[in-house]
Amino acid sequence: MAPPPAVPEADHQDDDDDTPEGTGVDLRVAVRRLKARNTAPGPDGLPGKAWVLASEALGPRLEGLLSACLERGQFPLRWKTGKLVLIRKPGRPADSPSAYRPVVLLDEVGKLFERVIANRLAEHLAGTGPDLAEHQFGFRKRRSTVDAIMRVRALTTGDAVARGGGCLGGVSRHRQRLQLHALELH
Length: 186
Fold this sequence. Notes:
Elements: H1 24-35, H2 48-72, H3 77-80, E1 82-88, E2 100-106, H4 108-127, H5 145-157, H6 159-162, E3 166-174, E4 177-185
Helix pairs in contact: 1-2, 1-4, 2-4
């Protein structure tokens, strides 16, 4: 019995699809990030290091698979299926539900595909637009939590404070993103 195809066939109404093919660069960037992490394997049992080692030999085939997924606009359901693992928190009674932190382990190939999509989205937003807000630090290349903290620090110790004015700052969470808000008071 043959395994089902990873990406089911789809009917396309328009042949004017401008979805770019997966490139070796997309895959190399995603694999490089995978190489830097030491994560537990998902339901398929393949750790990230196995994908890193096999990427040279499997690269063209994996690239073709990811390109087909992008072209059809599909994310295989199997890559979204996770394995739930409960990790015990120290100092909590074992019989308490709050003593465990749930973690869902996903297949590494799905994580590779997510990285390819995230990189493409970030490139599109930065190049074609609409660009992300200047004060947004999440989902931005070369911006980190440390950068956001330094910005808050600069706002609260800068010219407004030196002139005897004040600065009101706040951090909010909107649609799963942290946003920094600052208002200079005179």
